[in-house]
Design goal:
277 residues, 32% strand, globular
């Protein structure tokens, strides 16, 4: 069966219904946003996997998708061959939870690629307000231009991090929790990330001169930036993030703005079957 989305989060609702109706495979046709909605539909309203034996597939549409790069699904032809072959892998997912305030129940959101706090959240907020927020070369160029503008003006934020119970205080411009390797239309932010190792690669981008931030952008696309001064890389299964100063720390996952306050992120090892080469 083919279903067309008509608005935000339609793919989440369609996926939940399909799984409850007994479908064993749901294929997202689109980019990272559509795929993220399908991933959120894999879990019920309480956060439990609806059908652990079903599988997600992806036929990438457009040229701006990032998850497909890590999943070795560069184009629709390769993806369709993978679907025909039917090989499935269990991969990890991430769960973001924010505390409720003033009657607000908070946010519970899932992702399989990357979530980030700081300048990345600001970039996504601006891209979503742009009339060129779609995929393709123009969308990627707009994303890069907005990223450079934010790097020039963002600065750093003081944050309290807790990685698997270990507290860390840092001044950062970005905190990246990576299950996949790419974000931002091809930036290889976490070159060592694996989809099925049960941990996130945690990339902290600290305080550095603006000129170094700008000159480092080409290195991020190549994945050679981790040796730059001001960048730390760790691994963790559970991460708590809390802003210390009064400046907002916006965060997002796969292009979805999620808030600007404290959050807890948990890795869910092997929680999703995915069709890939």
């Amino acid at each position: 069966d083919v279903k067309l989305t008509e608005g935000p989060r339609d793919a989440t609702a369609l996926t939940r219904k399909a799984l409850r109706d007994g479908y064993e495979r749901v294929v997202a046709v689109g980019g990272d946003g559509t795929l993220n909605e399908v991933v959120n539909g894999w879990f019920d309203e309480g956060g439990a996997v609806i059908n652990a034996e079903a599988a997600i597939g992806l036929i990438p549409s457009g040229t701006g998708g990032d998850f497909r790069r890590t999943a070795q699904l560069p184009n629709a032809e390769v993806a369709i061959k993978a679907l025909a072959a039917g090989r499935e892998r269990r991969i990890d997912a991430g769960r973001i939870e924010t505390p409720g305030t003033n009657g607000d129940p908070g946010v519970v959101h899932h992702f399989i690629n990357i979530a980030d706090w700081g300048v990345g959240g600001e970039v996504v907020a601006r891209v979503n307000r742009s009339r060129f927020k779609g995929g393709g070369p123009r969308g990627s160029a707009v994303f890069l231009a907005i990223s450079l503008a934010e790097l020039l003006g963002y600065g750093v934020r003081q944050v309290q991090l807790t990685l698997d119970g270990k507290p860390l205080m840092r001044r950062v411009s970005n905190v990246v929790l990576a299950n996949g390797r790419y974000f931002g239309g091809g930036m290889k932010i976490a070159p060592a990330a694996l989809l099925d190792d049960g941990v996130f690669e945690v990339v902290l981008v600290g305080e550095m001169p603006r000129w170094r931030s700008i000159l480092g952008v080409p290195r991020i696309y190549r994945g050679t930036h981790l040796s730059m001064p001001g960048i730390e890389v760790m691994q963790a299964k559970s991460i708590q993030i809390e802003p210390v100063d009064e400046e907002p720390l916006r965060f997002e996952a796969e292009g979805e703005p999620l808030g600007s306050g404290a959050a807890t992120v948990t890795c869910l090892p092997g929680s999703i079957r995915f069709v890939m080469p």
